[in-house]
Specification:
mainly alpha; 5% strand; two-stranded antiparallel ribbon
């Protein structure tokens, strides 16, 4: 049953928490830590908060679960020592979302020896600056509705190509030269499409050599997620004022 599955997840996480409290320190962010265990508990209890209070006999749900979600999100934040990404880190044309950052609690770290080809990678599919993959052809982006809802001062919106965005507007946010911005793939593409999102960058900002460009790291858990879990849980507990202060 779903209750049995939740019991298994929470039991497994408790075993991990007890083990980590024994003194283990991960050598890098590709290995989980005690903060990651707290983060996984926060995710689990946020999920459980959406179920009717008392629906399960041995697993917390409803408001009781939301309280636990907020508690474990806070523990994850304080234990991790992580700090939110800055504008400069988020918008960096060489290391934006491809290199382990202080905000990352857990990550998938790739190196050159894990690369199997030009297309078998995240970067080839999702990075609009990739000349060796599909990302540069399809221009992965966001919806118009999503773009329009974002404030102009939002650092995330600044690296999305808007309807009126010129190369002069966008040059600081990309390694793509002026000529490619307008005519990126010749017959395949007439330039960078509207609402293309430059959140994910190829390794070291490299656009041609896939052996360099595909060696990227990706976040599995970030401190920002924990902040949002705490905010959502507190809001469900009718503590919106406290949540807004976060």
């Amino acid at each position: 049953t779903r209750e049995d599955m939740f019991k298994f997840i929470l039991s497994d996480l408790q075993t991990a928490e007890d083990a980590f409290k024994g003194g283990y320190t991960p050598e890098n962010k590709s290995f989980p830590s005690l903060a990651v265990v707290y983060g996984l508990k926060a995710r689990t209890y946020l999920w459980l908060g959406g179920f009717e209070q008392g629906i399960y006999e041995e697993v917390l749900t409803g408001e009781a679960a939301y309280r636990k979600a907020a508690e474990y999100a806070r523990l994850a934040i304080t234990t991790s020592g992580a700090t939110p990404m800055t504008k400069e880190q988020y918008q960096d044309v060489d290391t934006g979302f491809n290199t382990v950052q202080p905000s990352w609690m857990w990550a998938m770290i790739q190196s050159v020896d894990t690369i199997l080809g030009n297309l078998l990678s995240f970067s080839a599919q999702i990075c609009p600056e990739s000349l060796w993959g599909y990302g540069g052809v399809v221009d992965p982006g966001v919806s118009k509705m999503h773009y329009d809802r974002m404030g102009d001062a939002d650092i995330r919106k600044q690296i999305i190509v808007g309807p009126e965005t010129t190369y002069a507007d966008f040059a600081q946010y990309t390694n793509i030269p002026n000529a490619d911005y307008w005519d990126y793939w010749g017959a395949f593409n007439t330039g960078i499409g509207t609402y293309t999102n430059f959140k994910f960058r190829p390794g070291q900002g490299e656009r041609v050599d896939y052996m360099v460009a595909n060696a990227v790291s990706l976040p599995i858990m970030r401190i920002e997620e924990m902040e949002f879990i705490a905010i959502e849980a507190l809001t469900h507990l009718n503590r919106a004022g406290e949540a807004a202060q976060r």
